[in-house]
Design goal:
The chain has helices at residues 16-23, 31-39, 55-73, 78-84, 104-115, and strands at 13-15, 52-54. It is mainly α and 116 residues long. The protein has a domain at 13-84. Helix 3 (55-73) packs across helix 4.
């Protein structure tokens, strides 16, 4: 990862050359790296040899893959395994689809449903 650039980027980025090296791909082109980024839904920006991805996208993808692996290896105790390894599971904060009961009667019914 580049430490500093002349134009001072607002976000930390990684060049596709570095991504290719970190993934262990060889060869001249970047087709396999671009295909990998497409599968992981990582946005690639720039043109030519200056194509880049956000460092936060790279870290997020690596963490998701690690959590998925732990879930497969420890299907019943995966949450305890994450705590043991000091990995925080970050959940999205979008609560727009969650029903929140307003009246006391609705809260009671909602609580009964959640207890089941």
């Amino acid at each position: 990862m580049e430490k500093s650039r002349k134009c001072k980027e607002k976000f930390r980025t990684i060049s596709l050359q570095e991504v290719k090296a970190m993934l262990g791909y060889s060869g001249k082109g970047f087709r396999s790296v671009l295909r990998w980024c497409g599968k992981k839904k990582i946005t690639v920006f720039g043109d030519g040899r200056r194509r880049r991805i956000l460092e936060s996208d790279w870290v997020s993808t690596q963490q998701k893959d690690l959590v998925r692996s732990i879930k497969l290896n420890f299907p019943t105790t995966w949450m305890n395994e994450l705590k043991r390894r000091r990995i925080q599971l970050i959940l999205p904060l979008d609560n727009s689809n969650v029903y929140q009961a307003q009246s006391t009667h609705a809260q009671k019914i909602s609580k009964e449903w959640n207890d089941e």
